[in-house]
Amino acid sequence: MREYFSHDHHARADEKIIKMLKTAGPEGYGLYWMIVEMLHENQGSIPKDYELLAYELRTQCERIKAVCEDYDLFYERDGRISSLSVDRRLQERAEKSTKAKSSAMKRWGGDANAMRTQCEGRGIKGKERKGKEREEGEGEADPPTLSQVREMAEAEHLMADPERYFHTRTTTGWKGILNWKSDYRAWNCREHVNPPAPAPAARVNPADKHFEIMGATLKKNLWHDAHLKGGKCSFCGAKIKPPAVCTCPKYTAASNKAFKLQEAKP
Known about the structure:
The protein has ten helices and three strands, in the order αβααββααααααα. By secondary structure, it is mainly alpha-helical. A three-stranded antiparallel sheet has the order 1-3-2. A hairpin with a 2-residue loop joins strand 2 and strand 3. The chain is elongated and about 125 Å long.
């Protein structure tokens, strides 16, 4: 069974603690509570071995000694470290335990078997109650519809894509999802903090672009050569000296039409 001890929420306001915080800082405060934990684990006292404590708490021996001796938080008795506040709390715990045992014995007339049966029965009822609460929990074991996911995303202003969440979970059969609403909220946090990486943009090879331009230029030159055979325009018959081209309306219109068709082709 996990054990614990009470911790005053205003412990840091204690006059001795304030004095320690002023000189030893938060580290001294942490060392103090770790030593208090060790006292509770060892019935209220531990050996006065500062080197061993420093090794166990991963700090320096001088700091352990200062916390134990300089602020009147602990006292030494028979070579062991103790604390008045820990002594008081352990005494209160022992008294409460004794009273509880005495009350139980009076209630059951000293019948240990009856006491054990009663305790076991309460434990079983507690488990049944928790199981029932789990079955009746919010959305547990019941996959939602896409419209329900959309409504939740809109109502709670969730950023995660409801369709992507729904289709992903549907693909896996909603395995291991007992509460889809909690799962969708967690999904939203993951998507918001670590959004999915965008698809990498297609890389354009400069060489491909270069050959594309060269190809278009070559096609234009071939067209001009075809319509200026022998240095004459095939439309008006005018003599043209390369690399000049004819400027007659028919030649210009035909060339523009041809080049536009080439540009339109993929």
